[in-house]
Structures are given as C-alpha cells and as structure tokens.
Amino acid sequence: MTRGNDNGRGPHPDVIAGIVLVLLSAVGFWLTTGFREVPAMLSQNVPPTFFPRLVLGLIAAGGIGLVAGGLRAPRLQLSLLRPLVFVTAGFVVLVPFAIMLLGTLATVFFVSLGLPLLWNERRLRFVVPLALGMPGAVYLVFSVALEVRFPTGLVATLFG
C-alpha cells in the first residue's frame, strides 16, 4: 500500500480489517461454547476451550489495535497485493501438513526460520535465535508448564 489521499472517503482499511477480525473472533468464541467436556483423565489439566479462546482473544486484541491505529492513521491508497502475500499464504497453509510429518516443535523451528528468510530478512543474528528460541519457548510454556502433548510427527515415529 502506498500513502495517498482519496479525499477521506470511507474508513481506513485497517479499521475494516480490525472490525472483521473482532467479529470473526467473536463467532469463533461463540463456537467454543459447543465444545464437549473432556474427561479429566484426558484433559491434561486444561479445558478444551482454553487454547482456542486464548488465540481468539489475542486475535481480537490485535483487531482492536488495528481499529485504534486505523482511526488515527492517514488514508491509504490501495494497491495490488504483491506475489509474496500469496507465497506466504501458501507457506502457512502447509504448516498443518508439516506438523503431521515433522511434529510440532520441528515445524515451529522451520516456520520461525523460513518466514523471515522468505520476507528477505538476512540478518541471521536475529533469525537464528528466533528459530531456536521459539520452539524452546513453546516447549517450556505448553509442554512443561501446561503439560500439553504435541504431535510428534511421522518422522519421529520412524525413529522412535
């Protein structure tokens, strides 16, 4: 997008995107009310609604931030999407398949390494610690602190 002026007609695109994110999060939150309770033996000390609601809450907070920023920002002149947007979307669509093949932590590593490189970040002093630290942080928070078990992937079953 490029900065420009279209005589102030209509809301800033961030306002629209933020409202859409908040509404989609609200619908997702409502859908979690239909989740069945899991027996205590299988729940891993966390109700089935916890993680979806946590993610939806973070998305809604980001949407509110977009709305707030968009209300203060100058209007933008819309331009065509760059091909990198579609490459990134394809990369993200492949993540569930990578989790089934490689497991969660290995996939987090490759996503944390791959996305910055895809976006032309060449400062490896930032990319490598991110790629190494993100799976470690995910492991500590979810596996150690919350006792959540992640899929190990097909590759791990071949060697395990």
How big is the Rg? 20 Å
Task: Tell me, rounded to a whole number, the average pLDDT.
Answer: 82
Helical residues, percent: 55-70%
Main β-sheet: number of strands, strand sense, barrel status? 2 strands, antiparallel
How many strands appear in the DSSP assignment?
2
Estimate what percentage of residues fall within beta strands.
under 5%
Please report the distance between the alpha carbons of the first and last residues.
49 Å
Question: Order of SSEs, N→C?
Answer: EHHEHHHHH
Strand order of the largest sheet: 1-2
The low-pLDDT segments are 1-6
Tell me the structural class: mainly alpha
Tell me, what's the shape? globular
Count, helices: 7
Number of domains: 2
Short description:
With 160 residues, this protein is mainly α. The protein has helices spanning 13-32, 50-72, 83-93, 95-102, 104-118, 124-145, 153-159, and strands spanning 2-3, 76-77.
Structure explained in plain terms:
This protein is mostly helical. It has 2 domains: 79 residues, no CATH class; 80 residues, no CATH class. Helices cover 66% and strands 2% of the residues. It is built from 7 helices and 2 strands, in the order E-H-H-E-H-H-H-H-H. Strands 1-2 form a two-stranded antiparallel sheet. Helix 5 packs antiparallel against helix 6. The N terminus is likely disordered.
